[in-house]
Amino acid sequence: MKPFVNFLLAALLAASAVSSFAAGEAAPAKVAKPDLVKGEASFTAVCASCHGADGNSGTPGNPKLSQQHPEYLVKQLQEFKSGKRNNAVMKGFASALSDDDMKNIAWWVTSKKAKPGFAKDKELVSIGERIYRGGVSDRQIPACAGCHNPTGAGIPSQYPRLGGQHADYTATQLTAFRDGGRKNSPPMSQVAAKLNDKEIRALADYIAGLR
């Protein structure tokens, strides 16, 4: 009886598969891979003048993009385009990009190696290290390392890479989160709301030296 039962079960499964196909159930669509050649061309034409030829911006107010997590860059470009993240200059550039353009650019530039940054102020670095690694418990400020990694490497698809970023840019973003100028990450707004100017400068300086 056992061989017959196995044969019957196989026949039923085959019939079910045929029925599903006949009913029009399509196989999951394949997601197109990023086109790195197009990504490089688009980055060179649209992004390089502000962010450097390989994503290593030489301007302290413009972020380094090399080695950033591509999913994070795509999210930011989409939110610049939609207005969820407010920046008139970036909105103009992002609005001209399709979703495929954004993906191609993000995967190309994040494949480039980031140049290391450097901390500058020993006193600030000490304060920044303490907050980044341990938070401030009596003010309920969590350690930045919990989300962004002790080395600033971040967590792919979840939290951005920070290590080596320009201190000026990081300080500007933390201030914008704190003061309501940047609203596209409620958790960051909640954390930054508890930081004073000196702590923001200290964190930014410490992060610049992470590698």
Account of the 3D structure:
By secondary structure, the protein is mostly helical. It folds into two domains: 36-109, Cytochrome Bc1 Complex, Chain D, domain 2; 122-208, Cytochrome Bc1 Complex, Chain D, domain 2. It is built from eleven helices and no strands. Helix 4 packs antiparallel against helix 6. The longest helix has 21 residues, at 2-22. The radius of gyration is 23 Å and the shape is globular.
| Separation, N- and C-terminal Cα atoms | 67 Å
Tell me the structural class. mainly alpha
Strand element count: 0
Structural domains: how many:
2
Assess the beta-strand content as a share of residues: under 5%
How much is the radius of gyration in Å?
Answer: 23 Å
Which CATH class of the largest domain applies here? Answer: Mainly Alpha
Mean pLDDT: 89
> What oligomeric state do these chains adopt?
single chain
The number of helical runs is 11
Query: Per CATH, what is the topology of the largest domain?
Result: Cytochrome Bc1 Complex, Chain D, domain 2
CATH H-level name of the largest domain... which superfamily? Cytochrome c-like domain
Give the proportion of residues in helices: 40-55%
Present the secondary structure layout.
Elements lengths: L1 H21 L13 H11 L1 H4 L18 H13 L5 H7 L4 H11 L12 H13 L10 H4 L18 H13 L6 H7 L4 H12 L3
Helix pairs in contact: 2-6, 4-5, 4-6, 7-11, 9-10, 9-11
In brief, what are we looking at here?
The protein is 55% helix and 0% strand. By secondary structure, the chain is mainly α.
